[in-house]
Amino acid sequence: MKRSILILTVTALLSVPASAQLISERHNFAVGINGGMNMASVSFNPKVKQNTLNGPSVGVTLRYITEKYFSMICGVQMEINYSTRGWNEKIEDGTENYYKHSFKYVEIPFMAHLAFGKDSTTKGFQFFINAGPQFGYYLSDSVDKSSDDTWDPSLRSPTAQYNLEVDKKFEYGIAAGAGMEMNTKIGHFIVEGRFFYGLSDIYPNTKKDYFDRSANTYMGVRAAYLFDLKR
Question: Taking the model in full, what pTM does it have?
């Protein structure tokens, strides 16, 4: 019994430095700006035929790298962005009529940041993924439609979306992205593809309402520049 306890104790003591070698602490804090384009749509149920609505996204990025585990660089990233949502309706009535409804949001994603490649403090390239919850608040909306207002409702269904006002200004969902980063002496240059899937509805969705679901979603492409405040 005593011998077993001794063996377990020695094994535990030997494993401590081995584990410590696997994890290397980091305290790298970087801030910067980001900008890009969202290709947005609204997930309606019943379905509304759509093309993507392209709109800008700009904001600030804050990133903190906490550790390196094996070859994986781990950290957290937060952004505050001014971002476009909405939809570009696909009208199939044999005319050139169009209808675009855009929404402006302030969005705040909180994401885990996992990278592989050169360390953040070393010149070279990284490949990374970001994922986490995202929250947003509706600011305003606008409609751009053709001047010919003689659409035939019988050729387009549904039409309930045309006269609805945003009911729920607070938005939440899941954001995820992947991209490449180049570390240099003057900062970090980043290119990323981003996807957002909304879990909240923008229009009323009670039993008496037409739509069961009306959630924002988009795919985006963005670039960012970060500089280190702490390395």
Answer: 0.84
